[in-house]
Amino acid sequence: MDAPARSSHLFEQIHEILWGKILQGEIEPTQRLKDVEWAAKLGVSRTPVREAMRKMQQEGILIPLNQGGYEVRSVTMTDLQDLYRCRSALEVQAAREAAEHFGPKVAKHFTGLIRMIDRALERKDLDLALALNGDFHRDLIKQSGNVHLLGLYETIRKLTLFYRTTLLNRAKADTDRKKTYARRFMAGNKEHRAIIKALTEQDGEKAASLMQSHMLRATEHLNQEISK
């Protein structure tokens, strides 16, 4: 295994290595991680590994164990519903506030993202579609101009990506589930278009209502994926 480059921010590099392996499915939910083992694998001391794992605990990805070490968070319906209720509250308000200053240039940016998601889905590149979907939602939060909304969103963004990627990895392992996931993604992207249309018309209440419905349907879809 390639060791991270030496620097004063070694723990951040280790954090990215571990995070990448979780997203790729190489480290799975409920898997136990020990700093001593990963220090040996990466050829570094235990200190930066502990710091990296502590950061991942703060992000909600790792759960500390009484016997030492950490466990990768499991994906449960209750956790997902709680997380998406938080996301929905933030994104509904962001849509409402974004309408106040949503000009043609901004609309063009979001329309471009929607088209890029469509093209990724046409190529059956669900990983890229998921990344672009994240860009869409994060950029919409930014467009609200509310730095507090953005700050709150950033605290749950990584955990959201963890859930979405874990469920996508499961879906990709089964042809029928992958097709279902892709169809839901296409439907969600149509909902994106309706949200942007409302924002272009500067109808904040309509955009907020559409976003609330969008988040509810996304939660229902992911719950179905968990239950399979």
UniProtKB/TrEMBL annotation:
<dbReference type="InterPro" id="IPR000524">
    <property type="entry name" value="Tscrpt_reg_HTH_GntR"/>
</dbReference>
<dbReference type="Pfam" id="PF07729">
    <property type="entry name" value="FCD"/>
</dbReference>
<dbReference type="Pfam" id="PF00392">
    <property type="entry name" value="GntR"/>
</dbReference>
<dbReference type="InterPro" id="IPR008920">
    <property type="entry name" value="TF_FadR/GntR_C"/>
</dbReference>
<feature type="domain" description="HTH gntR-type">
    <location>
        <begin position="8"/>
        <end position="75"/>
    </location>
</feature>
<dbReference type="GO" id="GO:0003700">
    <property type="term" value="F:DNA-binding transcription factor activity"/>
</dbReference>
<protein>
    <submittedName>
        <fullName>GntR family transcriptional regulator</fullName>
    </submittedName>
</protein>
<keyword id="KW-0238">DNA-binding</keyword>
<keyword id="KW-0805">Transcription regulation</keyword>
<dbReference type="InterPro" id="IPR036388">
    <property type="entry name" value="WH-like_DNA-bd_sf"/>
</dbReference>
<keyword id="KW-0804">Transcription</keyword>
<dbReference type="InterPro" id="IPR011711">
    <property type="entry name" value="GntR_C"/>
</dbReference>
<dbReference type="InterPro" id="IPR036390">
    <property type="entry name" value="WH_DNA-bd_sf"/>
</dbReference>
<dbReference type="GO" id="GO:0003677">
    <property type="term" value="F:DNA binding"/>
</dbReference>
